[in-house]
Structures are given as structure tokens and as C-alpha cells.
Amino acid sequence: MKVLITGAAGFIGFHTCKSLIANGHQVIGLDNINDYYDVNLKFGRLEELGISRQDSEDFNRLTSSSKYPNNFNFTRTNLEDGKFLAALFESEKFNAVCNLAAQAGVRYSIENPRAYIDSNIIGFFNILECCRNYQVEHLIYASSSSVYGLNKKIPFETSDNVDHPISLYAATKKSNELMAHTYSHLYGFSTTGLRFFTVYGPWGRPDMAYFLFTDAIIKNKSIKVFNNGHMERDFTYIDDIVKGIVKIIEKGLDNCPQSSDLYKVYNIGNNDSVKLMSFIESIEDNLGMKAKKEMLPMQPGDVIRTWANVDALIEDYNYKPSTPVKLGVKNFITWYKNYYKI
């Protein structure tokens, strides 16, 4: 298959590219490499894919990988550039598109709302239009567990009402699901939304709590623990997320016998809710250091607990994430020490 991966320099996008390349697919990665967090990490991921920093500096130029010359190419562009996207779709004729590009971060959306409208709404609209106009068979896209808002019913199911997001980031992700539903209904192509639950692991995002905790503990600084530590998350290891994405890309919604329509949304989580303090303990154990904790109140836009019901994923794709948190944290800490030469 020929697959477009947007957000290819991002955490999930990078790992997805690697997996698809390993499976023999032809992949084109796309990313704007914005400075929401350290761009050196993004360039580092691309270098792992065989794209040099010099080659990834220019916008709107398709660059061949030195590591995978026959099945990976990269272009730096913005999803808001509809004209360039249309030209790319017309020339490459993708079988599937996996849209993992987005302006991420719940708290950042409170301070910088326009970035979310530009990337997550206008950018996603451009992707939908290109899929419609250039006969893409299947669009897979990143949604988020944040769409559940203050839902008190546990575990979260995709059939739950998600009409009350509590951050603009969550609102844009819910909007993506509604937009995808409309395009599937009107234009007859498959769309699959994936609600990711607290993804962590090697090459992760530096703005995520587990990354911030690790960095602070190593530097003997205090960590900020919100809601006085009374929080729980369905922490999902990156390899489990990617296996789910790749299964859905390769199998395809149309080939899934249980799927009755072109539009689907799935939770991808570890199907467990882990106490934040236990997660911090796993980091401490792997570092051999104790954290200095600054206990703080709840932050705007945050939720107390998340937990994914993944029954639909099991039924349709015979797949369930399963990496234990202790193993996932160990793998992350090992990568962190190697990457930062600690």
C-alpha cells in the first residue's frame, strides 16, 4: 500500500512510519515541525527514518530517505496549505491516509486557541477534501480520550455521550469525528477515528507529565502533581498504539466483517486505570531516585480519571493493548538515559 502519515515527526507518527516501513509499505511522511516543543527531538526522529535535518528544513519539497530510499519519503508542510496538499494527493495516489498531525496539548489550548483551529479544524478539513477528491479508500485519524470530558461513567465507551468537552483541544477532536462522519455519509469513503488514551514511551513528547517528571527528578527539581495526586489514567504504551493503528490500516474497514458502515470510532487504551502516584513510583523505581512533589490543585481543562473500554477493537480487529505500565516505564527510562546521555 501507499500510505500518507501526517505528523510523521511527531511521537505517534514517527513510530507508525517505522512500523509500516518495516511491513513493506510505501510511506510518505508529512510534518510542519512546529516549535510547540523542542524541534531537536522532531529532527532526531526524522533522522532515525533516514531524513537529514538539512533535507527536512525546506517546505513543500519531497525528500527521499537515505535509510529507506525505496519506501519512505518526507515533505515539510502545513495542513493548512490546501493547494500543496491537493497536488501531493494528485501525484501520489494514496491507498490510505493516517492523519496524526494536530496541535496537541489540553492546557496549551487555553492560552493559544487559534493554533488549534488552524491545524485541527482547517487542516483536517483539507485532509477530508483531498481524500474525497482523490479517491482515497480509507482515512484513519487521531481523536482523543479528552472528548469524554467530565464523563463519570467508567470505563469510557464510544457509545457514551461526548457533547460536553472541557477544553478547546477536546472540542476540535470531537469536531473531527463529526466532520469525518459527514464525509463518509456524503462521499462514501471509509473513516476511522481513534481515541488515544495517555500515550507514553520512547521518543515521547516532552510536554507530557511522565517526561516532565523524569526530567525534573533527574535534575533534583520538584515535580508538579495536580489534584494532590488524586488522579488516574489509562496509560497506553506507544507500541500498543502503533500495533492498533497498523492493524486498522492493513486490514481496512471495508474488509472488517463486523463493520456495518463506513464510519467507525474506537478507543485505544490499555483497558485499565492506574493511579498517578503509582505511575510516579514506577518512574522513581527505574531511576533509583525519589521525587520532590509539589502538590497542586486541579488544572482547568483536566479530568480526574480515564479508562478505555476496548471491546469494539477486540471484536472488529481481534486486538487489545497489553503492555504493563512497569515495563513501559522501564523502556522509556532506558531510552531517555540513552538519548540524553545520562
TrEMBL record:
Keywords, sorted A to Z? NAD
Q: Record's SUPFAM superfamilies?
A: NAD(P)-binding Rossmann-fold domains
Give residue ranges for domain NAD-dependent epimerase/dehydratase: 3-269
User: Looking at the record's lineage, which domain of life comes first?
Assistant: Bacteria
Q: Which InterPro entries match?
A: Epimerase_deHydtase (IPR001509), NAD(P)-bd_dom_sf (IPR036291)
Could you tell me what this protein is called?
NAD-dependent epimerase
Origin species, per record, is: Maribacter cobaltidurans
